[in-house]
Amino acid sequence: MNAQTEVLLQAGPAGELEVALDRPTGEPRGAALIAHPHPLHGGTMSNKVVQTVARACVQQGWLAVRWNFRGVGRSGGVYDEGRGELDDLLAVVQAQAPSGPLCLAGFSFGAFVTTHAVARLAPERDVQRIVLVGTATSRFAAEPIAPDLHVRTLVIHGEHDDTVPLASVMDWARPQVLPVSVVPAGGHFFHGQLPLLKDLVCRFV
Fold first, then answer.
1. Strand partners, 33
2. Which residues fall within 8 angstroms of residue 110, CB to CB, at 6 or more apart?
3. pLDDT above 80 for 80
4. How far is CA 129 from CA 54, 74, 151, 164, in A?
5. Quick one: which of 101, 107, 115, 174 has the most CB atoms within 10 Å?
6. β-bridge partners, 157
7. How many CB atoms lie within 10 A of CB 104?
8. With 0-12 CB in 10 A as exposed, 13-18 as middle and 19+ as buried, what is 78?
9. pLDDT in the model for residue 1
């Protein structure tokens, strides 16, 4: 985490949630919430991909909000296969970004949870940007993105992702005609390609 990162505990549906805030210079244009990978496979809000997306958002003027899902770090509760984790995300939105524009982002399992958050929040909130990286479509039922939100959505996937095969994400995106940005030779964690990932997110948000 960055030296200026503010870490706090807030109330959550299954106990306290550990939250990290990174603020931009000047007044934020809105709040970017970035959800982390699978809690049972080492996923935390300190994941390098999550931090890369957060840095890109801060650089572009967003307040970056990361948190540990239930059962991770200092967050209370236990893993709930995405259902409780969606409740965690919504609780963080309510506490840290109760009004104003939103950028909803996630990596891997976090991207899967984010698709459900988009479906829940978009009808009532100003969701300006959606960033889905390495979306876990092979093991979880990611929610489709509403057609009117496609222009606000960036889906990034590594060509050689061996955790979530590119074909799986294409199978999810194809019926929606939702474009997917493929990083050539990229793996699930974008080793050696985080600067490129940051640049792609920066240009989009």
1. 65, 104
2. 34, 35, 36, 37, 43, 50
3. yes
4. 13, 29, 9, 23
5. 107
6. 182
7. 29
8. exposed
9. 54
Spatial distance between the Cα atoms of 133 and 50, rounded to a whole number of angstroms: 9
The tokens describing 170, both together, are 């294409």
- Token pair 């399992």: residue: 109
What is the chain's alpha carbon radius of gyration, rounded to the nearest angstrom?
A: 15
Distance CA 161, CA 165 (A): 5
Tokens 């509760």: give the residue. Answer: 77
Span 54-76, pLDDT tens digits: 999 999 999 999 999 999 999 99
pLDDT value for 4:
86
Report pTM.
Answer: 0.97
Q: Dump pLDDT digits (tens) for 27-40.
A: 999 999 999 999 99
Per-domain boundaries in the chain: 6-204
Residue 3, both tokens: 């030296």
Q: Please provide residue 180's backbone torsions phi and psi, each rounded to the nearest 5 degrees.
A: -125, 125
Give the tens place of pLDDT for each residue, 153-182.
Answer: 999 999 999 999 999 999 999 999 999 999
**Helix, strand, coil shares of the chain as percentages rounded to 5?**
35, 25, 45
pLDDT value of residue 2? 65
DSSP 3-state assignment of 3? coil
Region 96-107: what's the mean pLDDT?
98
Hey, what CATH topology would domain 6-204 get?
A: Rossmann fold (3.40.50)
